[in-house]
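I had to read the description of the data format several times before I understood it. The format is easy to grasp once an entry is in front of the reader. For illustration, here is how one protein appears when written out as sequence plus structure tokens:
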Amino acid sequence: MISIRNSRWRASWRISSVCVCSLAVLCAHATSGEPEVGQAAAESGSKPEQPELITFKHPKSWRVVEQEAGDEEAPIEMMVESKNGDRSLLVRVQPRADVDQVGEDLEQLKAQGYVVTRTKLEPRGAVGQLNGVGTDYDLTKDGQAYRMYHLVTQFDFKHDVLIRVLTTESQWVKSKRPMKFMVDSISIGDLYQIEPDIDQPMMLDRQVYSFKAPGNWHLGESDRKPFTKLEITAKQYSWFTATIHDRDLTAQEELDMYLHHSIDDQLVSHTEMNTWLGLSGVGVQGQLRDTLAGFQEFKALHIPLADGRLLVLKKYQAESSIELTDPGFELIESTFKILVEPASGDPAIDP
């Protein structure tokens, strides 16, 4: 048997369509000579246009399968299938505590006439670059053999994502490349639409720095030598970190490790950035492509301190919700102050 997890596919075919899913109505549009495009809009009298919540690319010959509109508590989901219906991909986002996503999906398939004949659990499953808990299946329906793969992975602190790949047995092998490409292109937008609370901010006053942050963003701190880290996180997959590095590496060496070992598989583009927040150091800014969250703008500045330590500041901001999170980041950046003496000399050389 061939498992999706055991193959890292190389997509060489042409992708020319973008699908978009939101909370409610899904529809597909195609015009002569143009790529097929799936679009979505929630039905709302006061807000006729809702943000795109799930986007991914699919072959232009595939179609968006319309889903019944649910209430606000319903899962956010999108499904596309091939022209003759022998291959399909389902993406579903749902609060983790609500239901067993796999069990619920199996019940839905059972109601459609599918019978599972083999199940193989893969605790370290993957589809493309997306990792999670996988399950490989053989199924039958109306005398036809099918193959299916479920992958469940965590999106954020509240939501899980279910990926379902379903094809006829004969299409299983040739479906790997398009399925991999589609899954790798998934981008999940802002599921919360919660504005940063800048009217009642939290004041963060630490030994090395101080700043204000939105009162409804999440604060996390850790002290594990040689790193002392503070992280302030918005629900829109965006965050700001301030970390003290206390080890014998220069700012440039730390930056090189960050670029080549921490974000190398996500990096889209970057340029040199040596000043930020009125501080000088060694840094970069650019764009990342995060699995499921889509594109992020990022900044990272490594600032040598006079006592030999480094202050490392990083900002990650999801592009899908940038207008909503901008006021929060503006509050952080406009109030940030360093409370100790920075080092003199070349920050790339001095530790």
